[in-house]
Amino acid sequence: MTVSILQSNYIPWKGYFDIIAMSDIFVIYDDVQYTRRDWRNRNLIKTSAGVKWLTIPVIQDDYHQKICDTKILGGNWKKKHMGTLQMNYAKTPCFKDFREAIFQVYDTPTDNLSEINKKFIEVICEILDINTEIVDSRTLNLKGDRQERLIQACKSLNADTYLSGPSAKSYIQPDFFIENSLNLEWMDYSNYKEYNQLYPPFEHGVSVLDLIFNEGTHAKHYLKSFN
User: Fold this and answer.
1) Quick check: 97 pLDDT over 90?
2) Which pLDDT score is estimated for 63?
3) Contacts of residue 104, Cβ cutoff 8 Å, sequence gap at least 6
4) CB atoms inside a 10 Å sphere around CB 189
5) What distance in Å separates the CA atoms of residue 150 and residue 142, rounded to the nearest whole number?
6) Most CB atoms within 10 A, among 160, 171, 177, 205?
7) At what angle do helices 208-215 and 14-21 cross, to 10 degrees?
8) Please, is 150 exposed, middle or buried when counting C-beta atoms within 10 Å of its C-beta (0-12, 13-18, 19+)?
9) Closest CA to 27 of 167, 105, 128, 121
10) Distance of CA 164 to CAs 63, 81, 97, 101, 169, Å?
């Protein structure tokens, strides 16, 4: 049983969904501190003028505020984001095929950032034929430091393997996982295949929507988990 854990992100890039697809259970880690100017409430898309941020405006009343407690500021951003996607992806081969499925998510009746992020993640997983079980970290009642919380999550979900993103190498101690009878594996985000993308030069680090609108039902074959 392989578990992976990543923080809640807005319409994440393809690597985020690749690590989900390589796991039996994926934990959305949102009962941790919300970080400004990060991927929690924004992501990049491709435009004729280069990459552009799509940002959800949020209310941050407290520096220690958790992602799961972060509220969205107003509703005008929804129309703006849909308009920006329409303008920049209308000419892609598969935009019409997936426009409705993606745009319907913007109608989700919530002002909670993590809830809208989760809905996008679930819908995109369906499009990419990813059947991994998705769990909210809040349901696991995790305690302790960053590493201890990862161990607790794995144990509570009866995992024998933890698949981690490479950025966690800065704080994860492999021996701690060995002591807790857990295999530790690292996700490799390098050497992804390029696909047919508008507006060269090619850019890997944009929202997965770019891949879906350009490649449609073939999008999953540009993830390592399907090769």
Assistant:
1) yes
2) 85
3) 123
4) 18
5) 8
6) 177
7) 90
8) buried
9) 121
10) 26, 31, 33, 30, 9
Residue 132 CA from chain centroid, whole number? 13
Element housing 44 (H / E) = strand 42-47
Is residue 106 within 8 Å of 82, Cβ to Cβ? yes
Q: What is the pLDDT of residues 143-197, one digit of tens each?
A: 989 899 999 999 999 999 999 999 999 889 999 999 999 999 999 999 999 999 9
pLDDT in tens, 109-145: 999 999 999 999 999 999 999 999 999 999 999 998 9
CA 82 – CA 71 distance, rounded (Å): 20
pTM here is 0.96
179, two tokens: 């002591």
DSSP 181: T
The region, left, alpha or beta by phi > 0 then psi within -120 to 50, assigned to residue 11 is: left
Of 117, 116, 53, the closest CA to residue 80 belongs to 53
Q: Measured between alpha carbons, how far is 8 from 127 in angstroms, rounded to an integer?
A: 19
pLDDT of 227 > 80? The answer is no
Between CA 189 and CA 183 the distance in angstroms is 19
